[in-house]
Amino acid sequence: xxxxxxxxxxxxxxxxxxxxxxxxxxxxxxxxxxxxxxxxxxxxxxxxxxxxxxxxxxxxxxxxxxxxxxxxxxxxxxxxxxxxxxxxxxxxxxxxxxxxxxxxxxxxxxxxxxxxxxxxxxxxxxxxxxxxxxxxxxxxxxxxxxxxxxxxxxxxxxxxxxxxxxxxxxxxxxxxxxxxxxxxxxxxxxxxxxxxxxxxxxxxxxxxxxxxxxxxxxxxxxxxxxxxxxxxxxxxxxxxxxxxxxxxxxxxxxxxxxxxxxxxxxxxxxxxxxxxxxxxxxxxxxxxxxxxxxxxxxxxxxxxxxxxxxxxxxxxxxxxxxxxxxxxxxxxxxxxxxxxxxxxxxxxxxxxxxxxxxxxxxxxxxxxxxxxxxxxxxxxxxxxxxxxxxxxxxxxxxxxxxxxxxxxxxxxxxxxxxxxxxxxxxxxxxxxxxxxxxxxxxxxxxxxxxxxxxxxxxxxxxxxxxxxxxxxxxxxxxxxxxxxxxxxxxxxxxxxxxxxxxxxxxxxxxxxxxxxxxxxxxxxxxxxxxxxxxxxxxxxxxxxxxxxxxxxxxxxxxxxxxxxxxxxxxxxxxxxxxxxxxxxxxxxxxxxxxxxxxxxxxxxxxxxxxxxxxxxxxxxxxxxxxxxxxxxxxxxxxxxxxxxxxxxxxxxxxxxxxxxxxxxxxxxxxxxxxxxxxxxxxxxxxxxxxxxxxxxxxxxxxxxxxxxxxxxxxxxxxxxxxxxxxxxxxxxxxxxxxxxxx
Length: 742
Known about the structure:
By secondary structure, the chain is mainly beta. The protein has three domains: 4-140, no CATH class; 182-444 and 733-741, TolB, C-terminal domain (Neuraminidase); 455-720, 6 Propeller (Neuraminidase). It is built from seven helices and 49 strands. Strands 3, 24, 25, 27, 48 and 49 form a six-stranded antiparallel sheet that branches. A hairpin with a 5-residue loop joins β36 (564-570) and β37. α1 (16-28) packs antiparallel against α3.
């Protein structure tokens, strides 16, 4: 006799979240862990129905989209869908026959493929703790004959207790055996030349979508899909002139959303996982995450004032809601919607530090989740039950993946069994045995320095005198040349943590001049006598300016304000140190080099102050520098003591310009429209000549400057002879998957 709970009910329809929870319970049961095929069938039809596409579940659709049959597949000749549907109904009937508690029931009516969801009363509501089905059967028997069968019922009840106890022992033993039989396994999902990044596991964990552009670190990536347990690979996009990143599976597993950058401007598109026609979802949004019901996306956009913000958009109507607004100098990154759809976790990064924040999807107060950390957090993800966040936090030997309980955000537990410098976590849905899969990116990065002789002979306008400088296998960033041009300061993590280093141009081994713990460091400038360096350092949630002797000695803190203080620049007469500071809005300040109260020079938004050769003027820009080259900023100039500000028509980018005795040298990238649009044309060095008041070309470089993973991209000696540029030497990353993760 069929279980009455498997028949369609006219009761209240449960929410999508409850249905997904029940689906996870069913898939984790022993009946379904034995059959991945029926589990995939059930997952496919349930997710399609929750997405509002239940009416499309026809035999031919399931055959082609789930089983990969060809478009000319004949359902009459091959009854695979009908056979599996019948097996699925039998398996569901068997599953619910052994479940006596209430909740949501998933059924598939005979002759149809669209599942039905309905709620049933809990067992506690029935006399004696029996289920509705049992109590109704008991009522049908009635009181007649109860005396005759009382002893039999007691014997059956006693036997049931014994069997239940045995079942528990057997179940625990079986689970223990399963745990021993299936421990977590670390799989290499991709190992292509170059960098495979932005992994996104499909809901069932069988596929991983990712971005990859080829062996070159600056090649524009496309979106790909690969089987985790096999070699089958599919290229979803093929657009060499634009960049695509951040794939994300729709909750039903049928589509992959992704971000496309055209001249730096992002948009969100989606494409069927099997390939086909692309569909535009949203313009002006990047790095989006689907809501669990598939009806909206939450991504990173910009306010009318140009500030980074989280934006939620309904897919069907296009209606948008702004959820956050980052302070100036910061940006929002990697939004992740919780499994119940109520909360968005995201990163806020800027000025050498980053932290995790939470905000309700309905809008409301933005709450910090944990403390600020020096450096850049490498991504985050919810666990499938929504109880923990996986966060790739900076550590001395590379970023480490930590799991942090939502209810106890102070406790961080390292994820065991995966290497350091692991970023971009992604999880699947719940799989057999209550486990799930975890995908991460791990690999080797080498960002080096290129020393360029700007006075050497050129080859038809091409600068050829460029060589690796003070090379290592870690992350180096240009700092500043000494006033006489004989030495250079730079930042590097070659010692295991980021520090300031100094070396001579003659090849003398570098020496470390700072010994900071868990800090993010950026070189500012040299003192006019070449004996000291000013730099900014972020330690936990505070960023201040420090001064350290180049040849050894204690460092001292120059600034003590509550606001972030960055970009120190020594005046040429040695009296002042200019810098950028502000709570909520960064402006240009100066303080006595020997210590004393600071003075604000302008109320305009400002970063990277640079004094002119004659000491009369101060140049600055209106954009902070992050870890990517671009976009173009507005270059400003004002009197060194403060006064009227004028804007100059010079296309500089943050971290990629320098003042020399002859003019302002900067990197020009033809076609650059945004921070992540790396045109394939070569980089050019240009100069705004102070005497001629015009821009002229210095030469074309034979290598790509940056375009990411550095705190500064170009410095030039005062005499204009030498330039030091950042260059990505190696950026090899693979995608690893932890199977049987709990």
